[in-house]
Amino acid sequence: MAATYSTKQWFVKERSGDNVDVEKAFELVAKDLSVDDLKEGQVLAKAILFSNDPTQRTWINKDAVEGRHYRVPLKDGDPMEAYAIVEIIESRNGEYQKGDLVFASAFWAEYFILAPESLIFKIEGDPADTLTLGLTGLTAYFGLLTVGAATSKDSTIVVSVAGGATGSVVCQIAKNVLGVKNVVGITGSDSKCEVLKKTCGCDYALNYRSPSFKQDFEDSTKGGIDLYFDNVGGWISDMVIVKIKEFGRVIVCGAISIYDDMKGGAVSAGISRDTWMQVIFHKIRIEGFIVLQFTDQYAKGLTDLWTWLAEGKIQLIKQVWEAGIEDVPKGMSKLLNGENTGKLITKVIHSQR
Amino acid sequence: MAATYSTKQWFVKERSGDNVDVEKAFELVAKDLSVDDLKEGQVLAKAILFSNDPTQRTWINKDAVEGRHYRVPLKDGDPMEAYAIVEIIESRNGEYQKGDLVFASAFWAEYFILAPESLIFKIEGDPADTLTLGLTGLTAYFGLLTVGAATSKDSTIVVSVAGGATGSVVCQIAKNVLGVKNVVGITGSDSKCEVLKKTCGCDYALNYRSPSFKQDFEDSTKGGIDLYFDNVGGWISDMVIVKIKEFGRVIVCGAISIYDDMKGGAVSAGISRDTWMQVIFHKIRIEGFIVLQFTDQYAKGLTDLWTWLAEGKIQLIKQVWEAGIEDVPKGMSKLLNGENTGKLITKVIHSQR
Ligand SMILES: NC(=O)c1ccc[n+]([C@@H]2O[C@H](COP(=O)([O-])OP(=O)(O)OC[C@H]3O[C@@H](n4cnc5c(N)ncnc54)[C@H](OP(=O)(O)O)[C@@H]3O)[C@@H](O)[C@H]2O)c1
Ligand SMILES: NC(=O)c1ccc[n+]([C@@H]2O[C@H](COP(=O)([O-])OP(=O)(O)OC[C@H]3O[C@@H](n4cnc5c(N)ncnc54)[C@H](OP(=O)(O)O)[C@@H]3O)[C@@H](O)[C@H]2O)c1
Q1: Minimal Cα–Cα distance from B231 to chain A, Å?
Q2: Single pTM value for the model
């Protein structure tokens, strides 16, 4: 008799609009998985850690349109996806054995069947560190070093959402690997500012909720800005871009401030006329990227990142919270509410079987 | 007794705000120039042709700030400047003789004294053609070929303000030099659309004032857009950028739709949230430039442009209007009102002395 796994899995019930309780977009469904269902190449796996990524919010956006996204957005009724560290329970794939821990593109469920293309790599180091380096560390790495190449030590770099997963790595690569003189991190709380100054090498850490933010920003960027690593979009980005120097660059990594506030998309992304004029007058280059475009260079990126970690050039700031499958969608709210410092990781607590 | 030249010269009386009669910003002052005033290296010159450039509007913008512009903006009381073809009347500069026609950075006046650094080059070809090629043709050339390099023949290129001075050259280089498959020009009248189709090699010429514009735009860019040469800013640009394909590029040459409508600068430049998300999702590169950054390559650019002109690959669309010195500021209104097709050139009619 083949083994059966009772699992609970989150599906997209109704894609989310702006500024509503995003957790309401999902519904939890109980189902049974049988090992008999495994096809050649597939594995049956168990969720160990979930990566919480702001981009997941964009996958379930009510107005997301295929061809206007970097991936096929999810539809109502689709199973919710997530990057995860999974443990192989049963395998019909020669590359993966029972017990292996694998970085995978998986689902919000306790157990799931994964196709071979969803299995990204077998992990060797610490699972939470692995989840923090890939794809988050890789995003910082490729964004800063490839798209933002040619950054001189004498630069002023501004990083938004600096206290988050990607931002905290960007600041450290900028300071400790590139040796950039003036690294300015912007984030949403004083406690995150502390981490930025003490651990992430920021010369200035600015709390955008502080009444003195505008003045603090002026003080920290007196000579102008060479490079802006943008995770936030909106008014913060407008304020930064308008101060960029001649031939300065903007790396558009994300725009979390608008993911849950698209207002039909027609509303300004926060680029004012003054700022747009600076793009011309100061010959500014603005460039978007998606880490997935560098898939063929992940191995090199990960080698560098693990080396810097071993050398103490970067430290991984991470926040692991434990959740039963029922609570998993709360991770998305936590990101949108700014509750995390560094990488937010969900450790899945499995109910006794 | 030294010769004296009675001249009239336009000064900036009060820099201009948004959407007011821009001609009111200037005042005409009569003065006498004496050849005795000429210092070593200087020339006394006579205005022959004035270049009408939208950027002149930005030099006299009420809120223009030094360090936030590509040049030092003009102040109240400054003489108004203009690129011009001038005739040397008296010279204390060994490189220029009486009678030479020179492309210069000059003033809105009948006669003026020019410093050696204002004399850009001696002209040989037709004066109006020379004014059209430099700096306008050079702007099209460097914008399209340097900043927008790597454009494949299989591309769709969209050009805004295509019926204007720069745009009309961009379209022709794209079609007749680069051999781009689909060149889409956007402009403000049906008559300009005719010129774009008949003379400038546009596969589609769209009138943004037509009720069918949005549909026409969809029809002409079915496969998405590879490159956008942006002269306009605002809602037209937003509409174009949101349709740019993966790894597509935007060359930000100008934003004439906002020069006279800055509303304090805080208003959106027209980049909506939908569009900004495309910058990330589709990894779009947006880059501003100022033709002056290529000064050291003008000679090569002009050689290519004159060659293409001789080969019939480009034709210069120009509109010459005659004006006494009293009427010169009308040229700025003409540009802002869209009255010109191609390069707007003022031929200065001198009063009898
Ligand atoms: N291009 C790519 O390939 C790629 C890959 C990964 C991530 N990203 C992007 O990078 C950004 C950061 O993602 P991450 O994975 O590193 O997660 P993260 O930084 O940990 O994101 C969560 C943080 O975002 C901030 N935030 C949330 N809502 C905000 C708002 N309305 N205004 C300002 N800040 C807000 C909060 O920090 P504060 O307390 O500082 O506000 C929160 O803690 C996101 O925009 C994401 O989409 C892009
Ligand atoms: N970056 C550089 O180095 C550089 C150098 C030269 C020029 N430029 C820029 O290139 C653009 C074109 O300049 P140009 O010298 O070639 O002159 P131009 O195209 O002849 O400019 C005048 C034309 O602009 C259009 N226009 C005016 N107001 C408008 C509005 N509110 N909305 C839409 N279109 C409007 C009109 O054409 P329609 O009938 O089509 O509306 C008008 O005929 C300008 O933005 C200019 O600043 C940049």
Answers
A1: 10
A2: 0.97
